[in-house]
Amino acid sequence: MLSYAFRRLLSTIPVLWIAVTACFFVLRLAPGGPFDGERSLPPAILQNLAAHYNLDKPLIQQYFYYVSDLLKGDLGPSFTSEDFNVAQQIMVGLPYTFTLGMTAFVLAIVIGVAVGCLGALYQNKMPDYVLGAMILVGVVFPNFLIAPILQLVFGIQLAWLPVGGWGDGSLKFLVLPVVVMALPHAGRISRITRGSMIEVMNQNFIRTAKAKGIGPRLTVMRHALKPAMMPVVSYLGPAASYLLTGSLVVESIFGLPGIGRYFINAALNRDYGMVLGTVIFYMVLIVFLNLIVDIAYAWLDPKVRNR
Amino acid sequence: MILNPAKRELLAAELLEAEGLSPEGRSLTKDAMRRLCRNKAAVVSIVVLALLILAAFIGPYLIPHNYEDPDWAAFRAPPSWEDGHYFGTDPNGRDLLARVLYGTRVSLAVAFVATLVSVVIGVLYGAISGYFGGRLDSIMMRFVDIMYALPYILFVILLMVIFGRNVYLLFAAIGALEWLTMARIVRGQTLSLKNREFIEAARASGQKPLKIITKHIIPNLVGPVVIFAALTVPEIIATESFLSYLGFGVQEPLTSLGTLIAEGTDAMESMPWLLVFPAIFLVSLLLSLLFIGDGLRDAFDPKDR
Q1: Locate the ABC transmembrane type-1 domain: which residues (chain B) (predicted)?
Q2: What is the pLDDT of residues A204-258, one digit of tens each?
């Protein structure tokens, strides 16, 4: 188990290196830059700016500077904000994005697994149809459509919940964004759970459990749930990455001060330093989430471990 | 019980029909099409999709207004039958119906081209990787694994930031990043195909590997590729709308459903029609594509039935 985890950890290094290198060169080879604004700056100032951000050095040298800074945890300067560098801005946004993402992640898993199990146990009955409807809503209504509808209904018409913003960070500010983020994933997770649960329930060891006279609840909880969870666990890696892209929209719509909003603003303002830093940060996050998911998977399935 | 021969024949045919058999053999495709036609949701979806496509490509010629010229007499006009703005107008006085139809057209075009790009890359990549196998296969598939681990939407945003909001680039960028699953599916199919006798025969007759891939392997992949492509289309439309919503999509005066929804969201309290109509179009488009894709998969894949 430990050696598997270690091997998996080692294999993330080339992934991250390729990702960082690709992002760096794609951004640096791009035409245009953060300093071509509407009013053109005098050449002397441009030269100073370029020197300040090391942009006048050869590309390969810039790359080495960047990577060595990166290894020290420095994501470089932001080209538009003088007071904060990229790492500082990310640190400011991180708690919000983290709270939001984790809450949505847990909520999606809990709802998805519960609804999926119900759907499998009551195949083609009421709970199953509710499940079907949920999946459809999650898949067909993109989050940028659900969010304004919920804002309109619960924020404005009923006035139960705040329309947006973080406020004092209390629960009522979290409800709408978290629901919007969790809903599509709850749908997908419940579909996966339903499928694998049906498959597991038809297997011999479940028949044995039933034959021994164990009640349906115990059969599911003790025998069926763990093997049925495997496809769900393997979905969690991609789910984390989808959640993250979802947070880009959700943070913009609800006006939350997370990393997603910094990223969108930076991208629209062509703040390459910030874009590069945020993308790299996101990728490290996702690669590590995938790592955790893989290790969890190996823990659930001994066959994977020994491969 | 003795029946006259004609009646016995009829009865036998009915029995066979009831079991899904018929005296003449049916091909796999015909069988699948039959199953597809029996799937009510899929049939309705095909009709809806056909109507949407017709509306998007012919509709603009039949309505009195055009998608980019403002109507100086009607700013922020609610939907009305009298002045020909059936869906109302936006804050710039442009006819919403025309814009929605145009946006649908852009979304469909993006979906079509991006799916094509993803199919071409995915099929070639998967077939080559599966056919040659060995070290090449493990390197190529490792690369796919790496790409999977990365949040690809960030890459698309990165590309859009760098190269401007060019519609063609949008096509290519989305397509170039959606091919991963396609490559995996095609590789799996190729692995099972490449040991079959007809491939062996082709090899024995001295054909070059690339020719075997294009002439013998790829034609046999059509089924799964079509099914998966059908499932990719709604995803691409959703992605395109997502990018347009964030402001990385097509540029004014061109529009797409995502852009329209973004504009509608800003004004949803005072001008709800700006949100409602594009939303209806997007949702029915996604819904019908989803049902068609699912229907195709169920019709072709006996395991899922």
Answers
A1: 104-293
A2: 888 888 888 887 778 888 888 888 888 888 788 778 877 877 788 888 888 888 8
Residue among A31, A152, A282 whose CB faces B151 most closely: A282
Tell me if A140 and B286 make a contact (CB, 8 A cut-off): yes
* Closest CB to A145 among B154, B163, B279: B279
Of the candidate CATH numbers 3.40.50.300, 3.40.1000.10, 1.10.3720.10, 3.40.190.10, the domain formed by B27-304 belongs to: 1.10.3720.10
Q: Is the pLDDT of residue A307 over 60?
A: no
- Distance CA(A88)–CA(A102), nearest Å, equals 21
Domain ranges of chain B: 27-304
The Cα A208–Cα B119 span in angstroms is 46
pTM: 0.75
pLDDT of residue B2: 54
Q: What is the percent of chain B with per-residue pLDDT over 70, rounded to a whole number?
A: 83
Q: Write out pLDDT tens, residues B1-55.
A: 455 666 666 666 666 665 555 556 666 677 777 877 877 788 888 999 999 888 8
- Which residue's entry shows tokens 């471990």? A305
Judged by CB atoms closer than 8 Å, whether chains meet at A145 and B246 is answered as no
Of B149, B262, B265, the CB nearest to A287: B149
Taking contacts as CB-CB distances below 8 angstroms, the residues of chain A near B181 are none
Residues of A in contact with B286 (CB under 8 A): 139-140, 142
Q: Do A275 and B161 touch (CB under 8 A)?
A: yes
Q: How many angstroms separate the Cα of B91 from the Cα of each of A24, A82, A253, B57, B280?
A: 41, 37, 21, 25, 20
Segment A236-247, tens digit of pLDDT? 877 887 787 778
CB-count exposure of residue B147 (10 Å: 0-12, 13-18, 19+): middle
**Nearest-by-Cβ selection for A15 from B146, B238, B245:** B146
- Does the structure show a pLDDT above 70 at B199? yes
The pair of structure tokens assigned to B202 is 């082709």
- Answer yes or no: do B282 and A145 touch at CB < 8 A: yes
CA distance B6 to chain A (A): 42
Phi and psi at residue B95, in whole multiples of 5°?
-70, 125
